[in-house]
Amino acid sequence: MSFETSFDGPFGAPAMGDPTVQPNTFIGQHILRDPTVLERAVELIPAGAPCVEIGPGPGTLTERLLTDGHRVVAYEVDERWQGALDTLAGEGDLEVHWGNFLDADNDELSAARPLTVVGNIPFHISEPLMFKLAELPFDVAVLLVGDRLARALTTANPDNPGWSRMSLVSNAYFNVERVLDVPRESFDPVPRADGALIRLTRKDATDEWHADATTRTYRALIEAGRANSTMSKALKSVMVTPDGRAERHAAGGRRSGDTRSQRRTTNRALSAMAGEYNNTGRLEHSAGRSPISQSMLSIVGGKFDERVLNRPLSGVSNGDLRSICSAVSTAVNRRLAQRH
Fold first, then answer.
1. Other residues' Cβ atoms within 10 Å of the Cβ of residue 36
2. Of 11, 102, 151, 314, which is most buried with the most CB atoms under 10 A?
3. Which residues contact residue 154 at a Cβ distance below 8 angstroms, ignoring those fewer than 6 apart?
4. Burial of 88 (0-12, 13-18, 19+ CB in 10 A)
5. Can you tell me the distance from the alpha carbon of 313 to that of 166, in angstroms, rounded to the nearest whole number?
């Protein structure tokens, strides 16, 4: 397959389309020109997999995907690149949608299986994109993102200063591999920050995540945020059994078989746990006295102003979110340690 190019960019890589068209940095266009990174991105995609590409621009990555035999459905907001993408569509299996990937219908996207998502992501859409991907049953996502986002997505410990809302999303939904550091000089024009090539797969591609108490709790927080519900209700919806497994139930509900006496005993134990955690930041003694299950709200409740827990996810600061997730992680890890 042969593609016609009109001018050369940095690194000797072809730059498709009208050479008078310059990337629009106002909407985050920084075109990847480094052929080594482009080739590595394509290598991460399963052979022959159809791809949904986010923001192809002049088609530097698109060209390599088509050459490698992939069918590509691309979403692009900047119609100045139409000439370049029309040229590629005439040579390969490319379908272009002129619009924002974030506005694409999820059911329509999910109909293409296996779903592989690729793209050089404008830094300013990173957060809404991660929430969008959380709703899509993709098999693999190969993305070029900013270094800061890559660090947040690969941060598992909420006590790490790099933990953020994006860490919560990635730990709830994705397995994230940082494949390659990409210096900012690899882009044209050069952005202010370095980038990273990452590969994402979904945690729920296997069954193990269902029993992961931390993951289930993080998902409850995100799902409550989507429904504009509160952190308090989200935390109430997850119960952790004595063996460290997670159970979901309706907020305010209870598991069948809990007697009034058992619930009173459990609530006393939970109150002791909450007091211990709020005073010391750790769970050492009282956790072992919880006979049935531990409510996440009981662990973190009292450490925060009630107004914090009565907010949706969007209204909670990164600092408070880190503290809540740290409390959840501490409780779950303590439970798992007791089992051994």
1. 12
2. 151
3. 170, 176, 178, 198
4. buried
5. 12
